[in-house]
Specification:
single chain; alpha/beta; six-stranded parallel beta sheet; 8 strands; Asl1_glyco_hydro_catalytic
Length: 318
């Protein structure tokens, strides 16, 4: 008996599969190929890129369901849910003039409060100023059916204290449906303990709207790329499995990480999703290579049985 080569087996399989598809295909009906993925709908994008980078490259797996822009300005041409933010007092007029259109046109369901209010380099608000902004611009949205997210403090010790003071000054007159927080350091267990503490303290669902493997206390002690891969895998998996963590967004989906370790980036310098970005959205992360490694086809595909490959190709070509 003559033994078929791998290439011969592949071609024969392709012919057989194509013939089968031709016989069984309906001439009047087309079929949309759907990709089945495990989608917790928690993953989001903290997106500062406007329309200069294609946001849809992060959406094909279905893992990412929402995004925010540190502002009330959405990105065009995406089916992702947009969550506007009142970043600080300097954004109040824009937020106020935009919010009605966002409710009517986009059907937004949630808003985010001020960004790192206790930090001088961010929205830089006292708790009293934060309460005034909240009651003027955010609290009235509750009557329109929106869920209201707290101001998001940084993970400095002053952040939790600021948020406690904010709620004490509100004295029950501010509706905070969920707690937003940021966290930066290099230890996954420390991150988990931090989120658990915030949930225990404030007794509300959690949105982690910024986090990554970054040491701001010691610039010489940063995560390697492999450390980041492991850190992201551990923390993201934990949040996916933790009921009270409703949503999260990694920092960052951007070309310039603004002083953060560049290996945390989900895209390369051209704005194209890289291996870490693929890991974040549920694609395989097939090879090491850091922030500039573009996603590529897993080489192990070529070692699959020829009949399996032929079947897959036939579905596209036949």
């Amino acid at each position: 008996m003559t033994r078929l080569t791998t290439s011969s087996t592949f071609l024969l399989s392709l012919i057989v599969v194509c013939s089968f598809l031709s016989i069984n295909a309906s001439p009047t009906q087309s079929y949309e190929r759907a990709v089945t993925v495990t989608n917790t709908s928690k993953a989001g994008l903290a997106w500062p890129n406007g329309r200069t980078v294609d946001i849809t490259q992060f959406t094909h797996t279905g893992k990412v369901s929402w995004y925010y822009t540190w502002s009330p300005d959405p990105v065009a041409r995406t089916d992702l849910e947009f969550v506007p933010m009142l970043w600080g007092s300097n954004q109040a007029d824009e937020f106020n003039s935009t919010i009605d259109g966002l409710i009517s046109d986009l059907g937004i369901t949630s808003v985010l409060g001020m960004n790192e209010p206790q930090q001088p380099g961010q929205s830089n608000l006292t708790p009293e100023q934060g309460v005034d902004l909240w009651k003027t611009y955010i609290e009235p949205l509750k009557s329109r059916g929106l869920r209201l997210g707290s101001p998001a403090p940084s993970s400095a010790d002053s952040g939790k204290t600021w948020l406690q003071d904010f709620l004490n000054i509100c004295n029950g007159t501010c509706t905070v449906d969920f707690i937003a927080l940021h966290w930066y350091y290099i230890d996954a267990d420390n991150f988990i303990n931090y989120v658990e503490d915030f949930h225990e303290t404030f007794q509300r669902p959690i949105w982690v709207t910024e986090w990554d493997c970054q040491n701001f206390a010691n610039a010489n002690q940063q995560c390697s790329y492999n450390d980041i891969v492991s850190f992201l895998n551990t923390t993201q998996s934990w949040m996916d499995e933790t009921d009270y963590v409703e949503r999260y967004s990694w920092f960052g989906a951007m070309r310039n990480l603004q002083g953060v370790n560049k290996d945390n980036g989900l895209m390369d310098s051209k704005g194209e999703i890289n291996n870490l970005g693929g890991q974040y959205i549920g694609d395989p992360n097939p090879q090491p290579g850091g922030r500039n490694a573009a996603l590529s086809l897993n080489p192990s595909l070529w070692f699959l049985p020829a009949t399996f490959v032929a079947t897959a190709i036939a579905g596209l070509w036949c």
